[in-house]
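Apologies for my clumsy wording, but are you able to produce some protein sequence, whichever is easiest, and the tokens describing how it folds?
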Amino acid sequence: MSVVETDKVDGVAVNGNELRLLISDHLDFKDEYSHLNCLQDKINSYLGFIENGQYKEIYPDNEVDSVVIEIHFKYKMSDNCKKFITAVNNQLSELGIVCITVENQ
């Protein structure tokens, strides 16, 4: 699974009362505009997954108090991507969701 497969959750886990969702981003930033659009679509898909309570199908007995979306980038984030993630976090914080990033390079 990957960032381009918006109909799939790349990874999901519950640790205590925290729901953690993984996005696996293997794209480089040569076509930055398309890349950021894919990432936005994936995040929006995850918001639907959260809001619809689909995680309860996997973890029916867990109460979730907090949500973290963890994005693992294969390539170093561009400056615009960093700005995008900051904007995403500003919006997600209103919903009690945090987006964190991990860069492999």
